[in-house]
Amino acid sequence: MDMATDKTPVTVLTGYLGAGKTTLLNRILTEDHGKKYAVIVNEFGEVGIDNDLVVDADEEVFEMNNGCICCTVRGDLIRILSGLMKRAGQFDGILVETTGLADPAPVAQTFFVDDDIAARTRLDAIVTVADAKHLTGELGRAPEAQEQIAFGDIVLLNKADLVSEDDLAGVEARIRSINPTVQIVRTTRADVPLETILGRHAFDLDRILENEPDFLGHGHHAHHDDHVSSFSLVSETPLDPEKFFPWVQMISQEFGIDLLRMKGIIAFPDDPKRYVAQAVHMMLEGDHSREWRDDEPRTSRMVFIGRNLPRDIIEDGFMKCRAAQPVPA
pLDDT over 70 for what percent of the chain? Predict the structure, then answer.
């Protein structure tokens, strides 16, 4: 049995002020969806939940009448998570909202760093709520807005009803110029089926890039003034693991502060399985995934998303990881 299925999935929710995170959290905490979720927020008051809906309120944990609970992080996230794991009737999922934190990475990294938390929970996805009407302006003005798009596995493009189809297409192109692998979901008043954002396995190594065959970034051009941009590297030649592993470790250490996300699928010589790697800042993880299919080219491909990353240096190092090809007899 896959142990990962026993772990409680955790969704990290980020987004710029006013994008609609509170509306989404309210829906999860009050609607009759038949699931039990725990929602961890920075400040309970900000969520603006009607007190009539709160069944039981102790210091930090508020039980809702739909079976969900809401907690406030006044102290340490790890302490809150450990407490949740002890509660009877395990949850279908946990959401962690990152209000006021421009960077969701420290929250995401908790699920790699703390062994006890890692044993009981799994990071499922980073979801960014964006305001379709104001996002373009925010991206031009606020580096944090660009970084929140960069970190996302899924972007909920909210308030889509306030924007024309042409403008929506333009906003989506702008999002993809920052983060080519992100899934974009258009919403109005954050009304989205919860399975669209919860239980997505975006961080499961064997699912990374499975659903983005075109992520190689043909036609993805960075906006000239973006401080966050993305690029893809591709090699038809297999990579030498003895070169690749030291190189990718070095890259994550050297550029880790500015490397927001990295995802890759790597082909090694004489290895029937795909090697899949990902990083959030300096937290790097990787493992063998499924076997290469007979009908697919064994192409290694990596996507880097970050702040002013030196593409030439990274690309040069990547190409130097290619395995020596046997000379034909």
Answer: 81
* pLDDT value of residue 171: 93
Does 144 lie in the same domain as 258?
A: no
Number of domains making up the chain: 2
Give CA–CA dist 165/91, Å, rounded.
38
- Are the C-beta atoms of residues 24 and 129 closer than 8 Å to each other? yes
Per the CB < 8 A criterion, the answer to whether 71 and 60 are in contact is yes
What's this model's pTM, rounded to 2 decimal places? 0.81
Who has greater pLDDT, 177 or 226?
177
Q: Phi, psi (5° rounding) for residue 161?
A: -70, -15
Residue ranges making up the domain that contains 309: 228-320
What is residue 224's predicted lDDT score, i.e. its pLDDT? 54
Question: DSSP labels for 141-208?
Answer: H-HHHHHHHHH-SEEEEE-GGGS-HHHHHHHHHHHHHH-TT-EEEE-STT---GGGTSS--TT-GGGT
114 in helix, strand or coil? coil
